[in-house]
Amino acid sequence: MTGSPRDRFRRALWALSAIVAIGLAGCGEPSDKRAEEEAAAEPPREAETPALGLEPVAFADLPGWSEDDFAGAFDAFAKSCAQFARQPQDRGVGTEALALRVSDFADACGSLPAQAADPAEARAYFETHFTPFLAIDARDGTERGLFTGYFEAELSGARRRDATYDTPLYAVPEDLVVADLGRFSEELAGKRVVGRVEDGRFVPYPERGEIESGLLAERGLELLWIDDPVDVFLLQVQGSGRVVLPDGEVVRVGFAGHNGRPYRSIGRVLIERGAIEPHAASWDGIRGWIEENPDEAHALFAENPRFVFFREIDGAADGPIGAQGVPLTPRRSLAVDRSLVPLGLPVWLDTTRPGDSDVPLRRLMVAQDTGGAITGPVRGDFFWGYGETALAEAGRMKSRGRYFLLLPNPAAARLAAPGT
User: Fold this and answer.
1) Residue 402 is inside which H or E element, if any?
2) What is the pLDDT of residue 401?
3) Within 13 Å and on the Cβ side, how many CA atoms surround 329?
4) Residue 50: what pLDDT?
5) E strands within 227-318?
6) What angle do CA 314, 370, 38 make, to 5 degrees?
């Protein structure tokens, strides 16, 4: 790698109230994330509960279906099949909106070839084992939604601190305590608080500013040392990434926990100060402001009290781990609203390439990840991979489009049955 890529921008962690953390990590999955630029550009809105509608279509109705080369699609879906194989057949893997079971994928996964010999064979496989449905917003019949992009952050780092690599990535501190409130009251089931014990009292864990001022120094918590503090901050927003060491070794790091503090968008802080205009509150604009005001960077970062801790990810050389628990496949993995779309489901995407473009982007994806900003029946986040090209494509992608869910035939048959 020739220096750290610029414009790290994506995927912030939970936006929670007070110190309540819902579903805190510790289960081995990556953190829930929210787009920094969306938090910066819009005031908070009350959450809605959108409904998923499905309209049956034929494969011939899928725009561009005959043009995809399916390169990487079989590999992506095979990873989902491997995950299903480790689960009981009667386990539910669907959503309240779309009930599926592991057994619904048994025939498709059992018939999956090691690789498709050609695109025609790939199309024949999916046409044999799946039934396509156009996803719509059942509230108003809308079939078009927003598709954004994300990438895997890449940083330059080292195992030991020196004059170049002097900003640490920290592991979870031994004094950080996660209290499961559901053990004390059924009304608080699913909620947890993060803190530490001081003089026999459970208190909130310190904020980012105190941690970055040396609170954790010399406690043996440093996983790696990074050459750019801005990249470290943005890795915390991203939640996971890859660190390239001086000898070329690549170390993947993933979310391991946080200090329980609420997330605050530094983009919105800059807007409120009048430092940047709302239209410039992307990571491109934020990075530019930081580079022009380097002495103010630390204080700006401290405006976001949340601090993220990391762990090294073993056995994940193929890519970062998505919410389904499988390595993501560049240009084939899609983050979706998991309350509506089951993870592991093939999805036919019909949108346009990043930027002000009318060039179609149509391909088979697999729903394998989630994101806090990815909500609604027609909403997706396209995983571009890592590196400068992926960063550029992801940063420019805000495309309108639609998608078609490919349901395994047993589930499609139940959906079509009277009374279901």
Assistant:
1) strand 398-408
2) 97
3) 20
4) 59
5) 240-244, 250-258, 308-312
6) 120
